[in-house]
Design a protein that fits this description.
The structure holds two protein chains of two kinds. Chain A is built from six helices and twelve strands. By secondary structure, chain A is of the alpha+beta class. Chain B has a single domain, classed as Arp2/3 complex 21 kDa subunit ARPC3 (Orthogonal Bundle). Classes of the chains: A alpha+beta, B mainly alpha.
């Protein structure tokens, strides 16, 4: 007993260090899936408010370019209107059917916190459960794909950015429709990698890559980026370097997309699997 | 004594605010960013009780974590750095040791000592921080480059700040 006490006194610095450090590491590990979301919701309530204040200041400074962008965006939206909202109407034999009410709905949200310098980046937006935002909704900017909603609190939501190594979407080459998974490799914020394109497919530098619409999260045909470079991997498949069309350092206003058909698609696919 | 504690509490708050409001927004090519909040641990007196040293490092790391949504990453790195501090101090100790009543400041021990002391501890902090954040040794050298570049930036800012804060 006496020896034990002496040992503790002699090495108290090391023991204290190990105690505090293991508590830190415990925080780190326990903050994975479920707890992480709980932790985010709590801390986002505080940091969300602080970020909002800072973002307000930043907004004044970028009003000019923002206005121009909004005007361009409005024009874009008018163009998209007929094509996005009438997907079901075109093929429907019963005009006035509830399915023709529109398949995707858009919600505008503002970025209040955004990181690009980590390997696992997240974006915080100023809309949450109160505005009808749910996890798994797609998020785009006027320039292209941005991410997917990950967790939602009352007034804020956390978005898994495309610049996150856990993020993958199904994308296709617009010209010929060949599709594959697209993800970020963690190096450069301007590029992502599209893989699994068979070696016989013909494409060129500068071709457009868009979302494929598979998975039901993103609508089909939204801009992802343009092809910058490619190489054959293992002789059979291309690995394509895609220059992303959204500039993640300048994100300000985003659109959250709700797919009204997703519950139906999911339940249908579940039945097939069973 | 109370005056000293209050001074360091004020320093704690000011350094956190500086990190969150100013230095978190500095990114060169999304690759390098300075974490100057470690300055707080660097400036603590030589005879700080061990428990206070480790706990203050833990809390400043946790504060940064809470804001940035990365529980445990910064606190683990900062506690590790605080743990290494006595050893680094012993390593760079001047011939006659650290006199009573002196503080680890640039103006008291000269630029050479302060640069060695800062670079060593910042490097230790950044190594733990960046590898914990990535949590893999995959692409080891790309992460190591980030560690080196960010350490240089952090240490430079810390050393420059000393000329402005503590003047003779």
């Amino acid at each position: 007993m006496k020896n034990l006490v002496r040992f503790i006194i002699q090495h108290h610095f090391l023991i204290l260090f190990l105690l505090i450090e293991s508590f830190s590491l415990f925080l780190l590990f326990s903050a994975n899936p479920y707890q992480k979301i709980r932790f985010y919701n709590a801390s986002h309530k505080v940091s969300g408010r602080a970020s909002l204040k800072m973002e307000n200041i930043r907004d004044y400074l970028s009003l000019h370019s923002e206005n121009r962008k909004l005007a361009e965006e409005n024009a874009d939206l008018y163009n998209q209107l007929s094509s996005t909202y009438k997907i079901f109407q075109a093929g429907s034999a019963f005009p006035g059917d509830s399915a023709s009410a529109g398949r995707y709905s858009f919600l505008t949200a503002k970025v209040i916190n955004n990181t690009v310098n980590k390997q696992y980046n997240y974006i915080t937006i100023d809309r949450g459960g109160k505005s009808g935002i749910l996890p798994e909704m797609a998020v785009i900017s006027s320039e292209g794909v941005v991410g997917v909603v990950k967790s939602v609190s009352e007034n804020y939501a956390s978005v898994l950015s495309l610049l996150n190594r856990n993020f993958t979407i199904s994308a296709k080459i617009k010209k010929n429709g060949y599709f594959g998974p697209l993800s970020w490799n963690g190096n450069n914020t301007a590029y992502a990698t599209l893989v699994d394109i068979p070696h016989h497919v013909v494409f060129e530098k500068g071709d457009t890559v868009v979302t494929s619409g598979f998975g039901g999260v993103f609508p089909e045909g939204f801009m992802v980026g343009i092809i910058e470079d490619s190489r054959l991997k293992g002789g059979n498949y291309f690995e394509i370097k895609v220059r992303l069309s959204s500039d993640f350092r300048k994100l300000s206003y985003l659109h959250v997309i709700k797919n009204e058909g997703k519950p139906e698609i999911d339940s249908l696919e579940n039945v097939v699997v069973q | 004594m109370i005056k000293v504690i209050l001074t360091y509490l004020l320093q704690f708050v000011v350094i956190i605010l500086a990190q969150l409001l100013v230095f978190n927004n500095i990114e060169f090519s999304g690759f390098i960013n300075p974490y100057i909040y470690v300055l707080f641990v660097l400036l603590l007196p030589f005879d700080t009780p061990k428990l206070v040293l480790l706990m203050s490092a833990f809390f400043i790391g946790l504060s940064i974590d809470l804001y940035m949504g990365t529980p445990g990453v910064h606190s683990t790195a900062t506690v590790f750095m605080a743990f290494s501090r006595p050893m680094v101090l012993a390593l760079f100790s001047p011939r006659e040791g650290y006199q009573k009543g002196t503080l680890p400041r640039l103006i008291q021990f000269g630029p050479e000592w302060f640069v060695k002391y800062t670079v060593m501890l910042v490097l230790l902090h950044h190594i733990v921080l960046f590898y914990l954040e990535v949590f893999t040794f995959h692409q080891f050298f790309s992460t190591f480059l980030r560690v080196l570049l960010s350490s240089i930036l952090t240490a430079t800012i810390i050393i420059l700040s000393q000329f402005f804060i503590f003047r003779k």
